[in-house]
Amino acid sequence: MFPRKTLDPRDPRASSLLLPSESFDAGDFVLVGLPFDSSIPSRPGARMGPRAFREALPSLTTFGRGVELAGRVCRDLGDIDLPPTSVKVAHERVQSVAREIFAKGAKPFFIGGDNGLTGALFRGLADAQPDLRLGVAAIDSHYDVREYDDDESLLSGTPYRRALETSVVTGERTFLIGARDFANSSYYDRWVREQKINVVPVEAFDQKRAADIGREIRAKLETMCDAIFLSIDIDAVEMPGSSAAAPGGLQSRETIALVRELARSPKVIGCDLTELSPPWDVGGMTAKLAARLFLEVFAAVDSR
Ligand SMILES: [Mn+2]
User: Fold this and answer.
1) What is the 188 CA–ligand 1 centroid distance (Å)?
2) Which residues have CB less than 5 Å away from ligand 1 (the ion)?
3) Which of the chain's termini has less CB crowding within 10 Å, N or C?
4) Do 68 and 134 touch, CB atoms closer than 8 A?
5) Residue 10 belongs to a domain
6) pTM over 0.85
């Protein structure tokens, strides 16, 4: 007979860091899934992102950068129930969950799902702490500042416009990192510059190492802000499993180095990773990158 394969207790898997939980306390690192893709115009599939992310975690271990994470806990609060038929209701639910988490002082990692819902996260944070001077480090190949008519017409291209409508975000304290040529319009390029948003195009990574770029952005945000939110649209990376995958993006190692530097700030209060779209993925590579970026944030935020 073939020998039965058993898990080696000396080689713990990253999935063991997640503790399914109904509740959480101040300071807890919590995971929340956003299984929603009704308002992604490019192609559907990202509603399955949270599940693929959780399934990718066992492919990674709990040990990195000389730090053993086993024994630390990320409370997995599960997925928010988001109706595919109403964008407005989905946004309201996400906003309400974000408000509760930020009001309690937990540190969330949201896994999506529609990048549009990132706008609801900022609104929830603004509800909880309206006077916060928030800094935003957004990794995205698109500006995502589209104009929209009403809350039912929000989509994956609107989150940072939504963010700027809140009391906590300003253009000066927002960095859009990884923007690509021929992925944005001149109209929105003008608007972004009028708002004094800091654009760091993907070409910047040809001149400078990703870790150095991350360190500089972190230092600037730390001087200007009380808190920092890290927002990752996985379509910024040249990987297949995202809603709007395209060539010419960040490489995965650049992204890991960038996220590692940004997450190191003691001011980071939360993170989201969106647009992971498993039906378009190849061999689960993009889901594994999402899991890896989660571990980088968890290691940095929880080890302080
Ligand atoms: Mn986006």
Assistant:
1) 14
2) 115, 140, 142, 144, 233
3) N
4) no
5) no
6) yes
